[in-house]
Design a protein that fits this description.
This protein has six helices and no strands. By secondary structure, the chain is mostly helical. The chain has a single domain, classed as Ferritin, core subunit, four-helix bundle (Ferritin, Up-down Bundle), CATH 1.20.1260. The chain is elongated. It comes from Streptosporangium brasiliense.
Amino acid sequence: MAEFLTDIKEIRARARQEIDKGPITSAYGADLPRVIQVCNEALATELVCVLRYKRHYYTASGLYAEPVAAEFLEHAAEEQEHADRLARRIVQLGGEPDFNPDTLSTRAHAEYDASLDLIEMIREDLVAERIAIASYTEIVQWLGDGDVTTRRIFEDLLAQEEEHADDLKALLERLPDAPRR
């Protein structure tokens, strides 16, 4: 049987120290203020994505709009779940989730889009998903073993963003008149 790296009595004693820090113990290895900042940037990204998908859902029109709009609505709901997970983690880390609408778009990695053309909506959503994929991949690598819980959250978000990108790519491939660049 493997032994603990630290004596169990020492772990118990450390757990009683700085009890006001909740889950943040001396074993936490990341830059906590920077992790909270990065999580808030990701929160802004997810909220902008929710707004973009919702706008696209409500303004989609044309012959193929119904199935595409349904995909937009599904993605909006999943992006909202991402935002909720990030906000909960920020609070758990002792931070405050930043929902300030005045600075939302400047903190977000992805951009808002007001396209009215269905193909352009899909393309812009795909670009935003690709931005999230690149950003979250970098965040996962940066977190490493310093904050495993936050890393796992970003890994989960990353997997779903990849699914979204795949869905949007498939929509573009199925729609007639979509540019095949």
